[in-house]
Write a structure and sequence with these properties.
The chain is built from 10 helices and 7 strands. The chain is α+β, with helices and mostly antiparallel strands. It folds into 2 domains: about 5-95, no CATH class; about 105-255, DNA integrity scanning protein, DisA, N-terminal domain (YojJ-like (1).
Length: about 260
């Protein structure tokens, strides 16, 4: 029988073990969320299976398999860097662009901004004029602003519509909105290489998805072929049912909330 003197130590050990498991599970869960929807997610799942196989080989006494797996995991850091180089680069870029002091818009400013963007995209949609508009949130989009034509203009639906008239000098590329101003147009955004995106998806959609994979920006776009309006955020497209739904989703994201609408990709 265990001595009563050791019971507090046992309880402390159990508590520490439970807390440690909870922390490890939370970290693992966040890693899965970070890689979700990318090619690295499939590789990460494969590595998880290898870890399970390693544990089973130790329990069952499969010496050769255990030796092979242990030697594989001895170089796991190099393997991860090689396989996940794109995702690690994106993650480090996100960390590097985070800043402690951010100037956020108030509810009236967000409401006014979203209404102007909604008026723009729905008017362009009726005419089937494609557009690509990125709204900066906490992470700075200076790299993409520098790739375009700097405007630093007050936002208006009329100006945004004129930018995306086909054939105009500023038509190609995307617009970046910073705060209550149009920072730049004709900006180049990174293209997504998400394997879940169909081959028929155009460059504009891939650029919208790619920017949201690299940054925390919100991107709205109109398809030039169909006039369909889409919202891209955190590496996903979200279904837009009508103008009211569009306004609701964009306001929710800009206010710092989580978009729980249906994900299309």
């Amino acid at each position: 029988m265990l001595s009563l003197i050791h019971i507090p130590d046992i309880i402390l050990f159990i508590i520490k073990a439970v807390v440690e498991i909870a922390i490890l599970w939370l970290v693992f869960y966040r890693v899965l969320l970070f890689f979700e929807g990318t090619r690295a997610f499939q590789v990460l799942r494969g590595i998880t299976y290898l870890i399970i196989a390693l544990l089973l080989s130790q329990v069952l006494g499969f010496d050769v398999l255990n030796w092979l797996l242990r030697n594989f995991f001895s170089i796991w850091i190099i393997v991860i860097v090689v396989i996940f180089q794109h995702e690690l680069r994106s993650g480090l870029a996100r960390l590097g662009q985070q800043h402690l002091f951010t100037i956020s818009l108030g509810e009236p400013e967000i409401k006014a901004l979203v209404e102007k963007i909604a008026d723009t995209v729905y008017r362009l949609s009726k005419r089937k004029h494609g557009c690509l508009i990125a709204i900066e949130r906490e992470m700075k989009l200076d790299l993409y602003i520098e790739s375009g034509v700097v405007l630093d203009s007050i936002i208006s639906s009329e100006l945004l519509q004129s930018i995306f008239i086909p054939g105009t000098p500023l038509h190609d590329g995307g617009v970046v909105i910073r705060g209550e101003r149009i920072a730049a147009s004709s900006c180049l955004f990174p293209l997504s290489d998400n394997p879940r995106v169909g081959k028929t998806v155009g460059t504009r959609h891939r650029a919208a998805l790619g920017l949201t994979e690299h940054t925390d920006a919100l991107v709205v776009l109109v398809s030039e072929e169909t006039g369909q309006i889409s919202i891209a955020f955190e590496g996903h497209f979200f279904a837009v049912h009508n103008e009211e739904d569009f306004i609701k989703q964009v306001k929710q994201i800009l206010a710092g909330g989580e978009n729980k609408n249906e994900k299309l990709v």
